[in-house]
Amino acid sequence: MINISMKAMLEAGVHFGHQTRRWNPKMARFIFGERNNIHIIDLQKTVKELKKAYGYIRDRAAEGATILMVGTKKQAQEIVKTEAVRCGSAYVTEKWLGGTLTNFETIKKSLKRLDELEKWETEGIFNVLSKKEVSRLTKEMFRLRKLLTGIRTLTRPPDVIFLIDPVEQELAVIEARKLKIPIVAVCDTNCDPDLIDHPIPGNDDAARSIKLFCGLIADAIAEGRHAHENRLAPGAEQPAEAQMLEGAALGEAAPEAVTVPAEGEAPPEQQQTEAAQ
User: For residues 154 and 165, what is the distance between their CA atoms, to the nearest angstrom?
Assistant: First the structure.
């Protein structure tokens, strides 16, 4: 369940937007005013949209959906990675590779190549190669590991994407929209919220603000995943609809009642025949 206060958001600087000259007019509905040429975000609207986003992420995770957390700007990288690992989510914190979503088969080939290189290293194959070849393969392995570690668990494109700064992640937004993958994103005053399915107005530059948003989204994912795992656990209670369907099926399969005649009495079929005569 989401737990957030105005005080916590104020202390994190969530309300500070960009300079007024850099704003996107489409964010006007989320702006409270301006101070010293800086737009001030309406935190009441931030809370409202954050609760919606939290509920959406939690419910999708409870359905078993895969959620990708993305934040490649320097101040977001470690925060996004830490929170994604905590909730068991896939993540991208390095450069967004073109085709990560729209050309996922190529990404799968790169992941397979990384597995292959790591296997060679473990099995000692590098030991029988020339130093030049080992150096080349090691650099390739480190590069792939750096770029792909966060998405190694993915076997297909994610069902939902959570972004820090859609302007910075323009390519990710384009790919997600092309595949109709829902986007949840922290949108500063320079963003276009119309490109985002679930925009959360807030400061996407300050580390404390990023940490607050990522922490809450990670909580939502963890809560949803916990509900999903409980639903799949052996002995878990079935939903009411499933119980009703099961009961109906049993009723249809139940054998008809059989009347047993008393001693010396003719069977019902014989009684009906005699009555007809």
Answer: 23
